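Let us practice reading a record.
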Amino acid sequence: MGKKIAFIPKEYFAVVAVLLAIMMSVLDGTIMNIALPTLAQEFDVTPSTAIWVVNAYQLVITMTLLSFAALGDIHGYRKVFLVGISIFVVSSLACALSSSFWMLTASRIAQGFGAACVMSVNTALIRLIYPPHVLGRGMGVNAMVVAVSAAAGPSIAGSILSLASWHWLFVINIPIGLTAFIIGYRLLPHNPVSDVVRRFDKVGALANALTFGLLIYTLEGFAHAESRKFIALQLVLLAIIGTYFIRRQLRETTPILPVDLLKIPIFSLSIGTSVTSFTAQMLTMISLPFFMQNILGYSAVQIGLLLTPWPLATILTAPLAGRLVERVHPGLLGGIGMGVFAIGVLSLYLLPAHPAEWDIIWRMALCGMGHGLFQTPNNVTIVSSAPKSRSGGASGMLGTARLLGQTLGATLVALLFRLFPAGQRSQACLLLAIAFAVGAGIVSCVRMTQASPAGRRQ
């Protein structure tokens, strides 16, 4: 008979705090998109200016995620998590009370700092809560919550705006955040005691923020055809500051950019596959609505419904993959997942000229199944291949890889939309997404040459 694994209720409740916080952080990355026209009208700003309410939030997270992960390794993941929740709740209140566009933008920047704290340590905390041999189950639930939150943002925003003003988009964070803080304060575990004395590299943190900020801003500028001289200047600054940052990190014993962890083959391979998989995902998900609206003639509401099978399929497969990784090598699971995803995208590329709704629905579900089957084993591998004392660095790198992949995917969509005529844009994006997915699948299979860290007792 198999050995029964029993969890005490306390562990479940500790996970609830982490999941509530990550749900809130991910939701606020997408929930504002649908409110941008309303904000532009109310504050009398241009649509391109209004987008900064979204961009400022995402940019701050990308620039500070690794620094907060390093602070988690030094001062404790629990402490960074609780500080992040506190900042997020207070800044959400400030957003709700904003009387000008610039006050709202400043409050969103503060919100980004809070979200970065949460995202930087959420998987590190899950690793502390779950025993190593069932870590995949916790990561599966985490992946499911992220998928649901990302997909549900526009729907939740639409429902709130149909009943109340945009201020309530932020008010809903307050009770959720307070609940997560109370549960986390009472039940979240502390870091294991370490004999290693660490210090926080403040200069490295500044260089990290500038490097990632310049990288994202340069990609955005390139995609939107900004001044070539300005982009060239950004590239020079990126090269100088980035080189200094990496050389400084190579000298550190516990660096902010976890170059020590990147020396672990299965860790670096998993980070690479994470970046490429999210690039493929964004190439597909951003380009498809344009294809559905401009070529197939669907309305915005119909497009939202037709996209829904993707996250629903991820919700079903992510927890299943979390259990499978206890028995099957994550490299094989990831390779199969990316293979299924590539087939799903190829089937979308080969859609008939006048498809029925069902023709789109099963293809979207196939993409979601493939990505869910890949993502959970990949996340488990990233977190569990790092020493437990470096779980924060691994958690931060996991989040950074996701954000970089999403940014690269969005940039490539904008670039391809400029290069190709209207009737071929989405098809070009889908073909490139297939190439990225196949590449991620091949690299994932290469990981099978390394021993699986998933499920081992640490």
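A brief commentary: The chain is about 80% helix and 0% strand.
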